[in-house]
Specification:
Length: 416
């Protein structure tokens, strides 16, 4: 018996690019039957973007669409519209991330969908929620900028910086997935579907929550003592960029390790957690700092973070990042190596946990992917390859009751 957590849940996946597909991929990993609807001929634009092998679906597409089925359907043709309506009646959830107004232009208003299937949950990603930008198209970095991430990332003397972590796209997809399973749970009591909206700006802001905390602290105190601007620099009226400072009350910084001159990732993140301050002093050979008034308390240390980290760095530069990790972990000193993508791809433990997975694909061969980072003890994830364009059109139409003759007519019309 298929006892996956979401088995039996059918998702009409009308998503493209990254944000929406992240959400439906997660739902597929939890066991939902995800039917991805794509335009005949071209499909999701990412199939052809950033291609590394000519004529083969890109890694961009294959890494965001695992465990799904693909149906091609022209939503603007007569037959395609009918098929879409059958799918709406057949499925529990519709997920989409089209530009604002695109669903309505296809005739798929919330009212129409709800009329066809009152139990249907409709999950949407949009760039912005209601307001001055609600009609705008949005990509990842726009969301990072509008959600407060860019203005608070980077160094004080440089421009705003966007993060390599796709918090706008994949971050919003995660938020939407939670909204959808919550609505599914609610439906078990109410019997009705509802709309779930995850705007990208809001999702990024949610992930930047601590910066809004700091904005209010700044307004009260005109200074933020754990920020690198303290005690020498000036604070303005908005939260400044904090470089590599730790986001919380435990001061941290990125320090060079042995080999940094040639290896761009020979660095370690080092946190001077108060509880292990004596151990830090012992490791770096500054035991007098344990009792010296200038260093003994977390409050006093905030005035000297730069020289403290410079001294710790003298020590980390004498070790590789992995040697430093090994020593520091013996003392429970929180730290982490700066891992390159190459190191992550080769990491045996991430492979063992199923977070880095090798998948066989019929046209590209074997490729690496990020598996399900959320582990359910009774519903383990088996990562399967992304579908080829329209690979399951016939299979799904047969399930919907379409005959071979119906399918021929739809094909002749260009609807599938
Ligand atoms: N059959 C027929 N038409 C289809 C179709 C199908 N199966 N699938 C899509 N289309 C049509 C849509 O109906 C739309 O047509 P209209 O413009 O005539 O209404 C058209 O394809 C294009 O859709 P789009 O405007 O969403 O696509 P785009 O490439 O121009 O914009 C994006 C992409 C991402 C900027 C936009 O979709 C968007 O802002 N989405 C919401 C925010 C979001 O998710 N952003 C994250 C993207 S990942 O970085």
């Amino acid at each position: 018996m298929d006892d996956k957590a979401l088995s039996g849940v059918r998702i009409l996946d009308f998503t493209h690019v990254q944000s929406g597909p992240t959400c439906t991929q997660l739902l597929a990993w939890f066991g939902a039957d995800v039917i991805k609807v794509e335009r005949p001929g071209e499909g999701d634009a990412t199939r052809g973007q950033l291609r590394d092998i000519p004529g083969v679906d890109s890694l961009y597409f294959t890494m965001l669409n695992h465990n799904k089925r693909s149906v091609t359907l022209n939503a603007k043709s007569r037959g395609g519209k009918q098929l879409l309506e059958s799918l709406i009646k057949h499925c529990d959830v519709l997920v989409e991330n089209f530009a604002p107004g695109a669903m309505e232009r296809m005739g798929l208003t919330w009212e129409r969908i709800h009329e066809l299937n009152p139990r249907m949950i409709v999950g949407s990603v949009k760039g912005f929620g209601p307001g001055r930008y609600e009609d705008c198209k949005v990509y990842e970095n726009v969301a990072q900028c509008a959600g407060g991430a860019a203005s608070t990332t980077g160094f004080d003397d440089g421009p705003p910086v966007v993060s390599g972590a796709q918090i706008g796209d994949s971050g919003t997809g995660l938020h939407l997935a939670l909204g959808i399973v919550t609505a599914l749970y609610h439906r078990t009591r109410s019997g009705r579907g509802q709309k779930v909206l995850a705007p990208m700006q809001d999702a990024v802001l949610n992930l930047c929550r601590v910066k809004l905390r700091d904005q209010q602290r700044l307004e009260r105190a005109h200074s933020l003592h754990e920020y690198p601007q303290y005690p020498d620099g000036k604070f303005g009226d908005a939260v400044p960029r904090a470089g590599n400072a730790s986001g919380g009350g435990q001061p941290g910084w990125i320090l060079r390790c042995k080999g940094w001159e040639t290896d761009p990732n020979a660095y370690i993140y080092f946190i001077t957690q108060a509880a292990v301050w004596p151990a830090v002093c012992k490791v770096i050979g500054e035991e007098e700092w344990i009792t010296d008034e200038a260093y003994a308390t977390p409050q006093a240390r905030l005035l000297h973070l730069k020289p403290i980290f410079a001294r710790i760095e003298q020590w980390t530069m004498s070790k590789t990042k992995f040697e430093a990790m090994e020593i520091l972990n013996q003392y429970d000193i929180p730290c982490g190596p700066i891992l390159s993508m190459k190191e992550i791809a080769e990491d045996p433990w991430l492979r063992q946990s199923g977070t880095v997975v090798e998948v066989e694909h019929p046209t590209r061969g074997r490729h690496l992917t990020v598996g399900n980072p959320i582990k359910l003890s009774d519903s383990p994830t088996e990562v399967t390859r992304a579908p080829l364009l329209g690979e399951h059109t016939e299979e799904v139409l047969l399930e919907l009751g379409y005959t071979a003759g119906d399918m021929k007519a739809l094909r002749d019309e260009g609807a599938i």
